[in-house]
């Protein structure tokens, strides 16, 4: 059976000797990788939240920054997200605090957008959806695909904005309601 550093080296696509050069154990490496990923994202989002701009502009900046952070080094993101349970409890608590700060940044921006009439969403739920869109693609996005990293991020941001915008939300709720009613009528006819 391979040891923990061999597993980590494989995830990072590097040799075990390279890891030993920087650290003697997996936990130290995980702490370094995780703190770099999460602390940098939290710091960048704090700056964006303070920008004097509309909630929509800050939302776009924040989502682009987080996605770029998550996808520009997918190996480090994978190591952090898939090995969090191996981190020391006190360090996990710090990471959770930073992750909550990231989430709250999105909640606050979305809530400001709702208050301004730009967005129509429950801020806490919408923020969780946005974080899923930002954080999950590390598992499958490829720079060798049909979209560049920037094009992919733009696509994801546009998708999220489409769901948040007040005018789109009302229209999609009405059309979904009509579609559901029509499906129910068709089921009654066929049964």
Structural features, described:
This protein has nine helices and no strands. It has helices at residues 4-12, 16-22, 26-49, 55-72, 74-83, 89-115, 123-135, 149-164, 166-190. The model is unreliable at 169-176 (pLDDT under 50).
Provide key terms for this protein.
191 residues; single chain
How many strands, which pairing sense, and closed or not: the largest β-sheet? none
Percentage of residues assigned to helices: over 70%
Name the beta content range. Answer: under 5%
Class inferred from helices and paired strands? mainly alpha
Backbone CA Rg: 21 Å
The shape is globular
Contiguous runs where pLDDT drops below 50 for at least 5 residues: 169-176
Distance N to C terminus: 57 Å
Chain-averaged pLDDT: 82
The number of helical runs is: 9
**Based on DSSP secondary structure assignment, what is the total number of beta strands?**
0
Helix-strand sequence: HHHHHHHHH
SSE arrangement:
Blueprint (H helix, E strand, L loop, with lengths): L3 H9 L3 H7 L3 H24 L5 H18 L1 H10 L5 H27 L7 H13 L13 H16 L1 H25 L1
Helix pairs in contact: 1-2, 3-4, 3-5, 3-6, 4-6, 4-7, 4-8, 6-7
What is the structure about, briefly put?
With 191 residues, this protein is mainly alpha-helical. It is built from 9 helices and no strands. About 4% of the residues have low confidence.
